[in-house]
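fold-stage: in
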Amino acid sequence: RLAQVATAIAHDLPTRVFWVSQAGYDTHSFQAKTHAHLLQELDQGLHALLEELESRDRLKDTLIMTMSEFGRRVAENGSKDGAGTDHGLASVQWLMGGHVKGGLLGPRPDLTNLDGNGNLRHVYDFRQVNGAVVRDWFGVNPKELFTADLQHLPIFATTKAIR
């Protein structure tokens, strides 16, 4: 699916947003092996997409963003070989592209400072990430889309609205 996205971008298809999904992360048992396979597949697909876009000089005007509908809890459930984790609140998002600042935004997750339900405490609301993308990539005021007053996150090295 990512190869199809690269082809569409290379051929200047007038589409501004592509959505690709990868199922299988909703694991509550035997998680280590499953997630290792899924993350390897994701890594290989994203790596190939980035290389293809760069070879066609299109990475500079492309933003790649991952997201998940749920995070994972820290504590394992089940036996050692069959262990997994339950749904959690905090998660990670990766952003890649020619204008994205590299590195980790915010502190590393504190695996010992959990909420009362065993969830990681998020540092940034996912709407802050989305708001920065809406503002700095698409050139739209995030207040038109989000009711919360969100702190702006400096995700991009330069602001490049693609309107």
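fold-stage: in (second)
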Amino acid sequence: MASQTVLLCPPTYFEVRDRKNPYMRAPIDRAKAHEQWKAVCDVYQKAGLHVALIPAVKDLEDMVFAANQVFVGIDEKLGKFIVPSEMRYPSRQREVPYYVDWFADRGYKVIGLDLRGEFLEGHGDLLWHPGRKHVWAGYGFRSSIGGVKRFASAMKEFRVSVTPLRLTDEHFYHLDTCLSPLSADAAILYPGAFSAEALDCLRRDWPRLHELTRDQALKLTCNGVVAGNSYITSHVSDGFKRILESEGLCPVVVDISEFEKSGGGVFCMKNFI
């Protein structure tokens, strides 16, 4: 889903407090994290995007990962809307109201789902297929299949189709860690993160699907962002650079090593609006 504005949250209170995924390790260097975050902002601005900010909130250490708290959409009749998340971890559940209020204050309609007993984690697991009214929906570690089904049911009103994809490797706990749409016809993925059925769905639907090795994927290579003709990422191997170039994209590398200590990549740190 294309946009010219990207929403970020400063890492004022960012730290690693507990283990929500296999990557998480403390301590982090907060001063270094802030410098890296500023560099991410600069990269987006150089790519021609406007950077919008949501204020950080004390004791919400993961609020910097702005992809997860809401799903953002647009409908011809309703206009801009969001679907609030139901996060799996209590510490992250408290982030959601701040994001909902931020979007509501800017005219977004709020589509609340009854997610009691289920989980849905925004664009961490819900990825737009470029140029189509279709969403790929990961589940298994953070979002639940029940949450995805309730989301899919709500999206029918807006003529948006949803394909559930079961994730099977805890290192790829969100869909955005193992699948990255590059264009309407091409994507990169790590096949070992998916069930056989999910992988079949992906291979049937994408004309060009570039598969990464586990070593490449563990560097959160799939957790990058397409901005114009650039692919913003934290790691690029020679092989991956050739993949991007074959799709008309130029890699732009930004160091986010402090955020990787929390299992987050470039994609995790933003939300397109």
